Amino acid sequence: MLEASGPNTIIANNTGCLEVFSTKYPESAWGVPWIHSLFENAAAVASGIEAALKFLGRKEGINVIAQAGDGGTADIGLQALSGMWERGHDILYVCYDNEAYMNTGVQRSGLTPFNTNTSTSPIGSRSTGNIRPKKPMPEIALAHGIPYVAVASVGFPQDLQRKVKKALSVIGPKYIQVHVPCPLGWRYESAFTLEVGKVAVETGLYPLIEYENGKLISVRKLNPPKPVEEYLKIQGRFKHLLDKPEEIKKIQEIADNNIQRYNLKGETTD
Amino acid sequence: MKEFLEGSTAVAKIIKLCKPGVISAYPITPQTHIVEELAKEVADGQLNSQFVNVESEHSAASVVLGAVATGVRAYTATSSQGLFYMAEVLFNIAGLRLPVMLTCANRAISAPINIWNDQQDSVSMRDAGWIQFYAENVQEVVDFHLIGYRIGEDKSVMLPVMVCMDGYVLTHGIETVDMPEQEQVDKFLPPYSPPYKLDPDNPLTMGPLVDPESYMETRYAIHQTHRYVIKLIPQITADFSKVFGRQYNGFIEEYRTKDAERVIVAMGSVCGSIKDVVDELRTKGKKVGLLKITTYRPFPYQEIYEALKDIPKVAVVDRALSLGSYAPLASEIKAVFFGKKKKPQVISSFILGLGGRDITQDSIKEIIRLLNTKEKSCEFIDLKPELLKENYEPNSI
Fold it and tell me: Is residue A266 part of a domain?
């Protein structure tokens, strides 16, 4: 992401895996100006940074990026994020979606998929995991009328970089949601991260879509879409579903709805 | 220049003269006029500032945090619930060593909801690491914002500052104020020039994860800085006097305490009423005085000790409380004298004026009357016994 945005970037980061592992005092992985304040306020801190740069007449040429995990975005951070979008700040917000509160031990978040086994939506004799679907953050972003909304995946890093560059060329609030498989939380061997990320997209469960000014301008087509079982069987967090065809069917429905809605079947012309 | 101004207007005017680059606030009674007037100044092109209308106080504090971190002077204001909603950000700002300026229009705390004046809000935040000033009148409100910006932004301080003004009493009251001129403000308050900021030309990391090996020293450092602020205050107030002609001790005000047998200790606008009572009783030959606390954080131990060590009887007025224990200011005043040879014989604690209940001259005289050899550990003044008799009966309807 930073490769795409370059050194003229200031980052506000919420609490989470990314913040914690990259800035363990006395070391820091960041070569750009970077601030971590609290769990839910990166969007507001970034708003202050952007306003300060505007006051100094220095906003042009400096990218302001706010970043957070799924919990910090869709749950505790949603208020500040909505406010930032509503006010129209020139900020790129990146959500690293690993589909649970991973930093604190794999607890369920608003972006945890349906039927996922997490530590606070555990499977049991009366449960097949999380009972709710993912909160539709890209749709919520679109509802705010912001000029650029995109979904990306670490399984497709060039597409991610393209989208970051595109976003930063737009003035106003931008939202990019990045699917980030987590070996520990999803229970797979870490060497398979790109593979897991790819399969998620290829089933239609995580469509790679791109909107500019509210219009859908690109999707990654699936030729053909993979059955969701191919995604579920490679992760420990879904293992409990493999002998439950009715539950797998429910997840296939989610994928099928995405495929229909975004017209994902076919060749990507992009 | 002398003007007859509503307190809120005076705040807006002085903030305008301090030229913050970013202003961000969320509306809450009785802070609203301050922020509305600043919005008007910006709208009329009289103040070049980015005015960020946020969706909550938590975000208001976060926006000014981000602005100051980027090297731009910033301002916010709030009260009561708003201060509490931004509480974690307050601690965060102090921990990040960023000199934000905040006006707290002191108001009671919910539940039950009450929009009138007491000091529960800012006193409850005394542990946050902020420098705290309490103003007696609108002139002090104006002057403390100037002094506050200067101290907070000092390169050896780099701490946020809260100027506390009693809600409605000082925000909505109209008083004569000697309003500084822009040239004077520019002379006293240099532009904000921080030793660190977010800048691509010189990248740094703010707010890392710090484990048990290194965390404690950051808290000690803030504590030490507060002690340094105590040394710095007299220099700043001397400078202030040169530029504006008004003298402040900076920590306290000793009002007719020199030969007093009984002294009341208090913070905020109630001090004005106490001075009137002191004057009246003095005409009747009663040796009473007032010790006004101006700077609550850093707590001016030495100044308080010197002012009260020879006073036989001291009454501490708290307009806040620590439910279940001693009143906040009273316990700190008492702590000054523990183990000292010279100390008052009696330090009695009184709680008054919660939720905007009027503190009258009679209330203050009642304190004087109750200030005798029998020490009061926590006495509530002007309570209504008939309200305390009400009982909750589940099937009474």
Answer: no
* Cα-trace Rg, chain B: 21
Angle, vertex CA A38, rays to CA A44 and CA A89, nearest 5? 15
Query: Is B16 in contact with B57 (CB distance < 8 Å)?
Result: no
B250: left (phi over 0), alpha (psi -120 to 50) or beta: left
Distance to chain B for A58, nearest Cα, Å: 10
Given a cut of 60, whether residue B262 has pLDDT beyond it is yes
Assigned token pair, B136: 């007696």
Q: What type of residue is B262?
A: R
Q: Is residue A142 part of a domain?
A: yes
For residue A20, what is the domain's CATH number? 3.40.50.970
The helix (H) or strand (E) run that includes residue B266 is: strand B262-266
Range of the domain at A153: 2-261
Residues of chain B with Cβ-Cβ distance to A47 below 8 Å are 24, 52, 54, 59, 62-63, 66
Residue A195 maps to a domain: yes
Of B120, B129, B117, the C-alpha closest to B223 is B129
Pick from B224, B160, B163: which is nearest to B194 by CA? Answer: B160
How far apart are the C-alpha atoms of B368 and B379, rounded to whole Å?
A: 12
Interface contact B66-A34, CB threshold 8 A: no
* Domain membership flag for residue A267: no
Question: What confidence tens digit (pLDDT) does each residue in A6-22 have?
Answer: 999 999 999 999 999 99
Mean pLDDT across the stretch A226-231?
98
Query: Which three-class secondary structure state does DSSP give residue B43?
Result: helix
The string of pLDDT tens digits covering residues B125-181 is 999 999 999 999 999 999 999 999 999 999 999 999 999 999 999 999 999 999 999
DSSP codes of every residue in A225-237: PPPTHHHHTT-GG
Rg, C-alpha atoms of chain A: 18
Provide the token pair at A182: 């987590």
CA dist., res. B355 & res. B142, Å (int): 25
Using CB atoms, pick whichever of A12, A19, A32 lies closest to residue B203.
A32
Tens digit of pLDDT for each residue in B37-81? 999 999 999 999 999 999 999 999 999 999 999 999 999 999 999
Instruction: Return the minimum-mean-pLDDT range out of A134-148, A226-240, B381-395.
Output: B381-395
Between chains, do B62 and A31 touch, taking CB under 8 Å as contact?
A: no
Instruction: Kindly report, residue by residue over B287-314, the tens digit of the pLDDT.
Output: 999 999 999 999 999 999 999 999 999 9
Q: Which of A166, A140, A142 is nearest to A152 (CA)?
A: A166
SS3 assignment, position B126:
helix
Question: Are A51 and B204 within 8 A, CB to CB?
Answer: no
- 3-class secondary-structure state, position B360: coil
Domain count for chain A:
1
- CA B327 vs. chain centroid, Å, equals 17
Is the model's pLDDT at A227 over the cut of 90?
A: yes
Q: Show the domains of chain B with their CATH numbers.
A: 2-244 (3.40.50.970), 252-385 (3.40.50.920)
Count CA atoms closer than 13 A to A132's CA, side-chain side: 12
